[in-house]
């Protein structure tokens, strides 16, 4: 009987397994997009660009949010619900700030006269928008998950002490953080 229980404890939770499969496919998508970017940049007419400073600030924000989600996870594990609520609130706020800074960063390209879509646009800027936009969609998904966790943390009706949802959201949030760091380094190096 104890062998069966030990074997069941070693199995990965279905939600975690699904998350890892999804993360693998996201990695493949961004690997393909950045590979296409490298191939395409060697063609005539490719314009180089420098990322606006605001992307540096957004990078700091998402790194900080990765720290706060880890603190939230630890607080949940230790059943310190007041600290968990605070850290999940801070993480969700930092996620929203990251998205805002990203939008402002892309708007600064437009303000400087660089078109990303439509007539007169450049393939290099369009690639940047496509890749950055896809990352933003994944971050928004993470922000929505953080907001769900936030509302659950403050709900009087919902009292679940299962660690799995918190671990899944934390893992996903760390993933979008690492993905942004990769893209940030890539766009600074690839130009």
State the low-pLDDT regions, or none: none
CATH topology: Four Helix Bundle (Hemerythrin (Met), subunit A)
- End-to-end gap: 60 Å
What is the count of helical runs? Answer: 6
Q: Helix and strand succession?
A: HHHHHH
Give me the secondary-structure category.
mainly alpha
Total strand segments: 0
Kindly state the percentage of residues in helix. over 70%
The average pLDDT is 88
What is the annotated CATH architecture? Up-down Bundle
Q: Let me know the largest β-sheet.
A: none
Structural commentary:
- There is one protein chain.
- It is built from six helices and no strands.
- With 191 residues, the chain is mainly alpha-helical.
- The protein has a single domain, classed as Cytochrome c oxidase, subunit III, four-helix bundle (Four Helix Bundle (Hemerythrin (Met), subunit A)), CATH 1.20.120.
- It is elongated.
Short description:
The protein has 191 residues and is mainly α.
What is the secondary structure topology, with strand pairs?
Elements: H1 2-10, H2 14-40, H3 54-77, H4 81-111, H5 123-154, H6 164-189
Helix pairs in contact: 2-5, 2-6, 3-4, 3-6, 4-5, 5-6
Features:
191 residues, 6 helices, elongated, Four Helix Bundle (Hemerythrin (Met), subunit A), mainly alpha
């Amino acid at each position: 009987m104890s062998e069966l229980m030990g074997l069941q404890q070693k199995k990965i939770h279905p939600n975690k397994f699904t998350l890892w499969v999804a993360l693998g496919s996201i990695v493949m998508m961004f690997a393909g997009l950045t590979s296409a970017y490298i191939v395409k940049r060697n063609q005539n007419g490719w314009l180089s660009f420098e990322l606006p400073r605001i992307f540096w600030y957004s990078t700091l924000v998402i790194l900080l949010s990765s720290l706060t989600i880890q603190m939230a996870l630890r607080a949940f594990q230790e059943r310190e619900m007041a600290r968990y609520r605070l850290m999940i609130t801070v993480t969700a706020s930092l996620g929203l700030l990251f998205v805002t800074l990203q939008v402002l960063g892309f708007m600064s390209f437009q303000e400087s006269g660089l078109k990303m879509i439509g007539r007169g646009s450049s393939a290099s800027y369009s690639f940047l928008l496509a890749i950055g936009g896809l990352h933003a969609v994944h971050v928004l998904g993470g922000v929505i998950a953080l907001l769900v966790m936030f509302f659950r943390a403050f709900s009087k009706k919902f009292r679940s002490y299962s660690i799995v949802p918190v671990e899944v959201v934390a893992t996903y949030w760390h993933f979008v953080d690492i993905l942004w760091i990769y893209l940030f380094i890539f766009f600074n190096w690839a130009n």
